[in-house]
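User: Hi! I have a protein structure encoded as tokens and I'd like to know what sequence might fold into it. I'm fairly new to this, so please keep things simple.
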């Protein structure tokens, strides 16, 4: 076989481009293409197999095999040599196909007379579209030049497919089929809407280029711009160690000769600069799928990010493509920062992320805004297109993309039922949460953003039991100023209209790292230098925050509480900071609060055993059940594997909470519970039954919790719990379930 020259390759691509630019049906185009490729490559057979669905490949066009087999011959992913190419995302090249492991003979195609086989994947940026196959009678092994050339052809086919050149009739169901993604719930609730991609895919409209020299200039210029931008990023002073490591890896790739050389070679074979970048990116994505080593995966991910940057430089396409956001937008992104999510704000109907975690700040913001959210929806950014219909089930952590009508209909029923329930809860809004045996439970809300406050009226909350002040710090790029905070806290108090608001001082550290503060490398940050520990060791920020709160109160009552107090001494020290600031503010002539209540969050078991004097001195205690539970059970709240394993209805934990209630009782110390469990109706009822009279929760939970409390008898609930304990049950969930089944709620 003569060596294949680059100009042969370019000629072939040009012929393919002509097919694309001539109006024709999708099937006719595919037929022409197989003919041209076989002719140009000098082989008897050229076939194109495309995915019918995620698992099935179908012969869609062929030159050389029997025409009757077109749209009949199908194989599963991994089945036969074609299936193997598709699964591995790599070429299979053999002179004697029947002797190859996994070979499967398809009698209807008449392929038994062909010996050699070269199959290459048709893929675009990690998205598998099909397989391109050459076969010939002669036992011939294709050389590297042939393989390179045919891979370039496959890339052009992938771009053509993406541009819709083969239409539906060719059997390709690209971005059209219904897809289901199973992830994890980030925020409950259901939403129906249209996809809005945070980072829309770059559209390459010119996979083939006539003039390689111009294209090479373009890619060199673009890589030059990329290198400068990475170097600039690296020169920024505020980088932490991890950010620096990532950027160093970026720089390594950006300056890699091999990367640029491979792209230039593909351009010589006729690809445009953009298509050459995508081809390299596809290879990297493919490897990413097969690599298990975490370090290597990260590096390949870096290369992927870098390719995206390069494509944006080349095409001039930014995040803003000029497209209009659809009605009922559902944001789809790989990952998202809290500030970015806040910028979109309440106009979003739902959020779906490929990555993220339940405790991430984006999830915290989604919760604050009550936007249904699913995280860990693997592969969705590659599949979803702007404007696609999407259903988000935040309760189950499921996403339906382009759902069938029957699914959409049952989903709408679910939304309607939820709306119905909301209406019922709204009718309870102004009624107290009083149990049938006459016990009143105070229901407060958790908040952290100004945007939360309007929910106070709608939900019927009697105040804010936990205002997480760190959110204001997390969503900014620099430390907020005292005046800024004072004005914000003032507006929070205005919005509360005299209802109490318990401001929790900054709880940073652990998973909450401020972008503008140097992170500390700690082996176990959840048990590390966080919250009040930071506040006491470096009191500057604590004092500034307390001053802002005093000024915000401006003569009104003020409630301050400290997070993560583990011992009495810490509380005393933090409290004296507050008293000192009051004194200082007064001496500066500022108006001080009409009264001030200073509380502590009980989030570590140790505080439950603090001396009596602690319970005497502290004005109120709020149980931070999320943290308390993780330390009580030694089960990381961020770890999906163990997070849900133990719950608040566990008898040991309930007994521990009863102990806390008993410690507060003799001193009349006001006690509340503000962990997530307070917002779950059954859990809330159990908490009330063991003696908690104040529960603080997400505003959306107040209705359901109140409805159950108003229907239940607290002393009976207590008896059920006591009986389950006596019987030696591990959890009271079963016994409570039996009792609740008989109630009319
Ligand atoms: C808690 O730990 O229960 C709590 C309310 O605080 P956070 O979730 O902010 O740690
Ligand atoms: Mg906590």
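Assistant: Happy to help. Inverse folding works backwards from shape to sequence: for each of the 745 positions I chose a residue that suits the local structure. Here it is:
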């Amino acid at each position: 076989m003569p060596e294949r020259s680059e100009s042969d390759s370019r000629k072939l691509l040009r012929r393919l481009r002509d097919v694309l630019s001539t109006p024709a049906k999708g099937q006719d185009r595919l037929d022409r293409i197989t003919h041209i490729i076989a002719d140009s490559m000098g082989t008897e057979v050229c076939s194109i197999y495309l995915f019918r669905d995620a698992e099935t490949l179908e012969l869609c066009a062929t030159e050389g095999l029997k025409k009757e087999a077109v749209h009949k011959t199908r194989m599963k992913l991994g089945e036969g040599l074609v299936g193997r190419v598709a699964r591995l995302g790599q070429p299979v090249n053999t002179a004697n196909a029947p002797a190859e492991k996994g070979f499967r003979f398809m009698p209807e195609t008449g392929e038994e007379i062909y010996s050699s086989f070269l199959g290459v994947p048709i893929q675009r940026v990690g998205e598998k579209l099909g397989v391109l196959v050459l076969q010939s009678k002669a036992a011939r092994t294709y050389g590297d030049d042939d393989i390179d050339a045919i891979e370039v052809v496959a890339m052009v086919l992938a771009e053509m497919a993406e541009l819709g050149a083969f239409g539906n009739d060719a059997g390709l169901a690209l971005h059209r089929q219904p897809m289901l993604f199973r992830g994890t719930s980030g925020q409950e609730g259901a939403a129906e809407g249209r996809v809005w991609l945070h980072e829309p895919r770059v559209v390459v409209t010119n996979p083939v280029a006539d003039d390689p020299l111009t294209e090479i200039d373009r890619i060199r210029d673009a890589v030059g711009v990329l290198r400068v931008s990475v170097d600039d990023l690296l020169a920024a002073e505020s980088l932490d160690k991890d950010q620096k490591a990532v950027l160093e890896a970026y720089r390594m790739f950006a300056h890699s000769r091999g990367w640029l050389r491979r792209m230039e070679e593909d351009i010589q074979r006729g690809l445009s600069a953009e298509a050459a970048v995508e081809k390299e990116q596809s290879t990297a994505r493919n490897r990413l799928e097969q690599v298990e080593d975490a370090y290597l995966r990260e590096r390949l991910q870096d290369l992927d990010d870098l390719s995206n940057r390069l494509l944006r430089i080349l095409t001039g396409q930014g995040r803003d493509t000029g497209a209009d956001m659809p009605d009922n937008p559902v944001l789809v992104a790989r990952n998202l920062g809290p500030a970015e999510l806040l910028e979109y704000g309440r106009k979003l109907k739902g959020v779906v992320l490929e990555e993220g975690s339940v405790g991430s700040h984006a999830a915290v913001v989604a919760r604050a805004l009550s936007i249904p959210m699913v995280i860990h929806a693997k592969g969705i950014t590659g599949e979803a297109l702007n404007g696609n219909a999407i259903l988000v089930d935040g309760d189950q952590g499921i996403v339906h993309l382009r759902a069938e009508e029957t699914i959409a209909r049952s989903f709408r029923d679910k939304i309607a039922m939820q709306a119905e329930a909301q209406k019922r809860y709204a009718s309870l809004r102004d009624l107290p949460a009083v149990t049938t045996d006459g016990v009143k439970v105070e229901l407060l809300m958790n908040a952290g953003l100004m945007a939360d406050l309007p929910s106070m009226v709608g939900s019927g909350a009697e105040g804010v039991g936990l205002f997480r002040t760190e959110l204001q710090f997390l969503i900014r790029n620099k430390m907020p100023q005292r005046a800024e905070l004072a004005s914000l806290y003032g507006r929070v108090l205005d919005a509360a209209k005299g209802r109490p608001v318990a401001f929790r001082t900054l709880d940073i550290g652990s998973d909450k790292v401020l972008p503008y503060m140097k992170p500390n490398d700690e082996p176990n940050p959840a048990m590390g230098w966080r919250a009040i520990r930071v506040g006491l060791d470096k009191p500057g920020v604590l004092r500034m925050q307390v001053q802002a709160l005093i000024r915000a109160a401006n003569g009104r009552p003020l409630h301050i509480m400290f997070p993560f107090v583990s011992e009495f001494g810490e509380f005393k020290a933090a409290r004296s900071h507050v008293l000192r600031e009051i004194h200082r503010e007064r001496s500066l002539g500022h108006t001080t609060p009409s009264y001030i209540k200073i509380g502590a969050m009980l989030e570590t078991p140790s505080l439950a055993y603090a001396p009596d004097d602690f319970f005497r001195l502290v004005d109120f205690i709020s149980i931070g059940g999320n943290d308390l539970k993780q330390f009580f059970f030694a089960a990381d709240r961020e770890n999906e594997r163990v997070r849900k394993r133990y719950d608040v209805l566990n008898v040991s934990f309930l007994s521990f909470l009863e102990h806390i209630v008993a410690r507060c009782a003799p001193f009349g110390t006001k006690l509340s519970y503000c962990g997530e469990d307070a917002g779950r109706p059954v859990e809330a009822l159990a908490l009330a039954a063991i003696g908690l009279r104040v529960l603080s929760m997400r505003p959306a939970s107040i209705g359901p919790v109140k409805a159950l409390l108003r229907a239940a008898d607290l002393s009976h609930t207590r008896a059920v719990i006591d009986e389950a304990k006596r019987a030696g049950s591990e959890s009271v969930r079963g016994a409570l379930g039996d009792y609740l089944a008989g109630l009319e709620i």
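A useful reference point when you look it over: The chain has four domains: 6-162, 179-198+327-404, 212-315, 432-740. Feel free to ask if any position seems puzzling.
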